[in-house]
């Protein structure tokens, strides 16, 4: 598989942002904003990120303050903690996070990265209660 996070000059790809010990985790996670920092052309979607977490690395527990997220795992094996629940993930696993939910991600492999996509979206408006 081609390393889908590598930058190819002249092809309009966004730069790789490198984060060490993100949210108190360990190792490096590389993130590419697939929209290139531009506003989303398709609301309610707000962001699309491609991420690659080092072998043995982790992204620390952090809350999703404003946006809902889908985390779609495409390569490798790992574990996620959502709130207080922990479960294994691998290719094809999807984690849905409502606003305010906490997430941690861990790469369980020692020999390869954990690759995943994050799609962020505005939460659906809450219906108003009927007037009395």
Please characterize this protein's 3D structure.
The chain is mainly beta and 132 residues long. The chain has a domain at 17-54 and 91-119. Helix content is 0%, strand content 46%. It is built from no helices and ten strands. The protein has strands at 17-20, 28-33, 45-53, 58-63, 68-75, 78-82, 85-89, 94-97, 102-107, 114-121. It has a six-stranded antiparallel beta sheet with strand order 1-2-3-10-5-8, with no helix packed on it. Strand 6 (78-82) and strand 7 form a beta hairpin. The model is unreliable at 1-10 (pLDDT under 50).
Roughly how much helix do the residues carry, as a percent range?
A: under 10%
* H/E element order: EEEEEEEEEE
Please report the distance between the alpha carbons of the first and last residues.
60 Å
Shape: globular
Report the major sheet. Answer: 6 strands, antiparallel
Strand order of the largest sheet: 1-2-3-10-5-8
Structural Rg: 16 Å
Q: Count every helix, treating DSSP H or I runs of 4 or more residues as helices.
A: 0
What is the number of beta strands?
10
β-strand amount: over 45%
Low-confidence stretches: 1-10
Mean pLDDT: 88
| Oligomeric assembly | single chain
Based on secondary structure, the structural category is: mainly beta
Features:
single chain; 132 residues; mainly beta; 6-stranded antiparallel β-sheet; disordered N terminus
Brief summary of the model shown:
With 132 residues, this protein is mostly beta strands. The protein contains no helices and ten strands.
Secondary structure elements and pairings:
Layout: E1 17-20, E2 28-33, E3 45-53, E4 58-63, E5 68-75, E6 78-82, E7 85-89, E8 94-97, E9 102-107, E10 114-121
Antiparallel strand pairs: 1-2, 2-3, 3-10, 4-9, 5-8, 5-10, 6-7, 6-9
